[in-house]
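Researcher: Please translate sequence to structure tokens.
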Amino acid sequence: MYTLDKKKAAIRNAVAAAVNKCFEGVQIPDFSVEIPREKEHGDFAVNAAMLLAKALRKPPREIAAQIASEIDVSAIGARAIDVAGAGFINFTVEPDYLRSVLDEISDMGDDYGNNDMGKGKKVMIEFVSANPTGPMHMGNARGGALGDTLANVLSKSGYLVSREFYINDAGAQIDKFGRSLNARYIEILQGEDAIDFPEDGYRGEDIRIHAQNYIDLYGDALLQVSAEQRKAALIEYALKLNIAALHETLERYKINYDVWFHESVLHQDGEVDDVIDKLKQSGLTYEKDGALWIKTSQFADEKSADRDKDDVLVRANGVPTYFAADIAYHRNKIEKRGFDKCINIWGADHYGHVARMKGALSAIGIDSSKLEVIIIQLVRLMENGEIVRMSKRTGKMITLTDLIDDIGVDAARFFFNMRAAGSHMDFDLSLAIKQSSDNPVFYAQYAHARICSIISLAQSEGLALDKNADTTLLQERQEHALLLALAQYPAEIRAAAASFDPSSLTRYVTDLAAAFHSFYNACRVRDDDQIVAKARLRLCDATRSVIKNTLTLLGVSAPEKM
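Model: Translation complete:
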């Protein structure tokens, strides 16, 4: 158990005992022991009194005062207890217990904050899964940063995590891709009047470039074959290049997948047909207009715009829909590959799809509680207070590659993790490249670099890091606050893993950097007293370690010089 956990447990036990003594027979509520953001409220705040008010029919402050009067502060290593606000019981503790966190950090290194919450359960996170018919956009960028950081957090919390990219290399969008390539191929060789471009086709410049490159390599040989053969050849050529580009871009974004799963495999192995047969047996399907439908309206979320609509499983032409393949894919993950939890990160346009997918899985005997879907809201790019829609270099929609080129990987990953997935966000491009304390990623990285410089300079002057430094000398208010922030790190990891929300880590590392800067401005590290200097240097090194660990979880570098 970590230092902070021990202290929270001691406070919790003391409060519970006091409640039993003051209010015999009352059920003790599931109260929290939290670190308040306002330091004047002490080191820990307990909300038990507010939760007891209804049962006891008393004002929370009166209840809090009774509870506080029965607690022996010295027995739990506290130096003060008081009642504040609506009825919080605030504890200010003796600093001695916090100093042991320095031993934990130095002994555990990168493992500091690890926990066994997952107990070895298999978790798959499927994220980004961008359509391979074109470049990745901002939604992919946000989902990538959130998904990869969540994978890091869950791994640190004792889960066996697999990162997966689902390649939609079958179905309607690939047919559209082929028809678009075919049209551009014909246009380049025979002129625009030779073929009508598909009304629903992909009109991006990348389609024309693929067609031109194919012609440059192989000439006009495809004019001699059927349209279907021509489309197949162009798809095979362009799809490989697009998938390779996805690999390259995501690796540049510091995302490395364990599995790249092809939708086409589900069709080839008969898994899509099998799941369609199982759905037929469930009694939830019917035929209409020559197509096979499933009664997903009975599963639909009431907030969904299309809640009264059913979904098509097999089109009138006999081709299964994307929804049918998606059901088969989730069955493959949960039943065939045996994942205990499958986490999908989807865009906001997939909101209505969640309940339908869970309902379809339940219909074929799959435990749909094993599927967790995180919906990410839209991103609005801003620069100098104005919305940005186009790349300055290309004059086209901004892609993930454009963003990395403009602001770098570190800023992109940090900023995308600054808001919970369900929150709309404005991404300030101007702020992301600003080298000042206003920029949170720069602020955190600068704190790390400053500490590295402090340690290096101290060592050059003969002041080495000393694990046996007398840390009882760390008595200043800013030193206490920094120790408390360091002790909070394991709880931050657990909270992020439990909520599937890693955005709290950006707030934590920013607060930790602020606590360090406050300490640095108030306490002279290279003190004339060498014993004090060694104690403070050890505190600096522990802070450096935790900042680096947090940034690493976020996929952000921790530079030693800036």
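Researcher: Any highlights?
Model: The two ends are 36 Å apart (CA to CA).
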